[in-house]
Task: structure prediction
Amino acid sequence: MKIHEYQAKALLKKYGVPVPNGQVAFSVEEATAVAKQLGVGDKKVVVKAQIHAGGRGKGGGVKLAGTLDEAIAHSKAILGMTLITHQTGPQGQLVKRLLIEDGCNIQHEYYFGMVLDRETSRVTIMASTEGGMDIEEVAAKTPEKILKAQIDPATGVGDYQINQLFFDLGLPKSAAKDFRNVVLGCYNAYVQEDASLFEINPLVLTKEGGLLALDGKINFDDNAGFRHPEWAELRDLDEEEPTEIQAAKFELSYVKLDGNIGCLVNGAGLAMSTMDIIKHHGGEPANFLDVGGSASQEAVTEGFKIILSDPHVKGILVNIFGGIMKCDVIAAAVIAAAKQIQMTVPLVVRLEGTNVDLGKSMLNDSGLAIVSADDLNDAAQKIVKAIGA
Ligand code: GDP
Ligand code: MN
Result:
């Protein structure tokens, strides 16, 4: 789960990470009030679009204002704009919230991030003197410029690790205390809040010699959601794919993709191999959809509805292994669901497992235009042929 920059900064602040003063605004009036309260005129403020995607600066979603009039003009321009960045896709994202915060005098922009390294099973700090720009580009072109420190979960961050990073980044003595607060604050927040990714890009050294987290990106680990009821308030459904929200209500794992063959599968591994084999036969999957091991008729119906709500879908491949649920039960669910929603696109069904013969004959006798397939290969070929790809 992703959260907004202003929410990430509030959380970082709670853990002692230095962040600029600022507040969220949902309207130009609110933005004006925050800018006044911060004392715009005597100092600069920054007006920042709050969307979950990065790259806002380049897209025109981050503007500096020296006067109240400027702050109002920037707020009017950014609020309600469709911001297009390299992370939003070409359709962009509508800006509904702003962060108005104190400006600062930047001496240098650093990168500071934290992620779980799955190879070592340890939270890993990544830091670089090349902040502000795309860290992926730095990693690709000059990987030696990314410093790393692996944190031992038993001992937490070692002082030697903080010192090492501090010297390797070439930070001045004046920033020592702030840097310590950044590292320890981020690590504590990462662990206690069940994060999966932290990115402060840039972490800036100010002309006054201190550090400030100027940007803040936090992703939470959804698997820990059960112990974080407070996440509900941080969620912004406007930033999420509506079909994925609907799928989550029925405990379906659905991820929308760009192709035109809808997939309804039970089990994540089977879903992935289904997508692979569709591609192998020249088709493009429209989605990943795992209805779960014990898919009910209700879940299957909802799965069909979600798949069909994507206008690009030209056909559906159902691939179910009848293990926990027997094939005849699944066939009944597919038939009932197909009848209820009046299937308008070709439907290929491949069943395997307990009571497979009974399941197949039920599909064949249903009177519906369901193409039954013998195996996965056959099923993929049939659906690709059916949509004329
Ligand atoms: P992103 O483009 O979505 O990553 O948004 P950021 O929050 O990282 O802002 C983009 C850039 O705006 C930063 O890299 C800074 O160079 C600049 N910026 C942000 N806040 C300030 C500020 O207070 N003062 C100045 N001078 N520049 C800022
Ligand atoms: Mn940034």
Remarks:
- Residues 176-192 form the longest helix (17 residues).
- The radius of gyration is 26 Å.
- The chain has a mean pLDDT of 94.
- The pocket of manganese (II) ion (ligand 2) is lined by residues 54, 201, 215 (CB under 6 Å).
